[in-house]
Design goal:
The chain has 16 helices and 4 strands. A 4-stranded mixed β-sheet has the order 1-3-4-2. Helix content is about 50%, strand content about 10%. The chain folds into 2 domains: about 5-65, 434 Repressor (Amino-terminal Domain) (Orthogonal Bundle), CATH 1.10.260; about 75-300, no CATH class.
């Protein structure tokens, strides 16, 4: 097995390290590490590979495997592209790459929901596009209580993630698997209120339906990117708060702050987003909109709104439920799961790493050497 420099690079990015930082930990020259990653040096000593394994917490086999060519990552939309350090963005993209391979493996055992999205023509009004999706998913005009469950049922993978920065809200990624493709949505656990999660997920749906996924997002100008973000925000508002139903609910009270608090319980959308929706639907003028937002600012509830600690929503469960089912029902042992993932799909990871990626309980995939127990027949007591 030959050393794979791409694997060193992916492990480094996954751990959030720069080349210089990794070189310092390995006690090597920066140029040497760079040469390893670019496959200019393809035969590092076993002792170096062992050190890479210890520092990056990846099995040694990981650095000797070929990449799975069935999974090819496409574009990635980050809501905070303009403010987030590229290191953090790449770290999350690498996590999604791993999840894609795990999905590919699980797909051999599980019949997952197929991707189920309507085709939206380029000249379709955003308000109309949101209702097309609602009708396509048979949601009508009712509130969406659990948006994560809804999108997972329609073939979109969702995951939540820990991150060292608060600059990343959510992102979506397209991955081509063979001749098909899937979408993945990731959202930050750092900002995990139900209302925030619902808007983030709906925002990413906007990107999926409205925007071209063949382009390199990094090449967009600041103005082009902001335009796409505004369109995705507009879609999220229209999707979560369908026009006619919201107008009926808000009635003559669009200028009353207290009324939005009550509506938040029903729609699971933030108060600030509902106020904005009222403004875009011309239910309030700009001055009223500004006054309502100033009221929130003065009360200190702009970032932490009422009901944020009360409202709940479903958490991602499609992948972790499938893994638990395969193991709990005896289709696979934990050892078989980890061995097949490595042997058939070229992804050697520590079991704890897979648990973190899929948000599985600790030790779900721990491989234990269970000593078989003898079974005995108890004799009758002697009289």
């Amino acid at each position: 097995m030959r050393f794979n420099g791409d694997r060193l690079k992916s492990a480094r990015i996954y751990r959030g390290l720069t080349v210089a930082e990794l070189a310092e930990k390995l006690k090597l020259q920066r140029q040497t590490v760079s040469s390893y990653e670019n496959n200019k040096i393809t035969n590092p000593d076993d002792s170096i590979i062992k050190k890479m394994s210890l520092i990056l917490e990846f099995p040694e086999e990981y650095f000797l495997e070929k990449d799975n060519m069935e999974c090819r990552v496409g574009s990635t939309y980050f809501r905070s592209l303009l403010t987030t350090n590229k290191k953090y963005r790449n770290q999350q993209i690498q996590k999604m790459n791993f999840i894609s391979v795990i999905y590919l493996y699980l797909n051999d055992y599980i019949e997952f929901p197929s991707l189920n999205l309507p085709e939206i023509h380029e000249d379709t009004d955003i308000e109309e596009a949101a209702m097309i999706l609602r009708n396509y998913w048979k949601l009508g005009e009712r509130p969406i209580n659990n948006i994560i469950y809804t999108v997972e049922q329609n073939g979109i993978l969702v995951t939540s993630y820990d991150t060292e920065t608060n600059d990343i809200d959510a992102f979506s990624q397209m991955v081509k698997i063979g001749e098909n493709y899937i979408f993945l949505i990731g959202y930050s656990k750092n900002k995990g209120t139900a209302a925030r999660i619902h808007f983030d997920i709906a925002h990413e749906l906007g990107h999926m339906l409205l925007h071209v996924w063949s382009e390199d997002i990094e090449t967009l100008s600041k103005e082009e990117f902001k335009e796409r973000e505004n369109q995705a925000n507009e879609f999220a508002s229209a999707f979560l708060l369908p026009k006619e139903a919201f107008i009926r609910d808000i009635g003559d009270y669009a200028d009353r702050f207290i009324y939005y608090r009550e509506l938040k319980k029903k729609w699971k959308v933030s108060i600030s987003a509902m106020i904005r929706r009222s403004y875009t639907l011309n239910l309030i003028d700009y001055n009223t909109y500004q006054n309502l937002m100033i009221t929130m600012q003065k009360r200190g509830i702009k970032k932490h709104e009422p009901l944020d600690d009360v409202l709940i929503t479903a958490i991602p469960s499609l992948l972790k439920t499938s893994v638990k089912m395969l193991i709990d029902e005896g289709y696979l042992t934990t050892k078989e799961f980890m061995t097949e993932l490595a042997g058939d799909y070229g992804l050697s990871l520590n079991s704890r790493e897979v648990e973190i990626l899929l948000d599985l309980p600790k030790d779900t995939l721990k491989i234990s050497n269970i000593i078989p127990m003898h079974k005995f027949i108890i004799k009758r007591n002697k009289s």
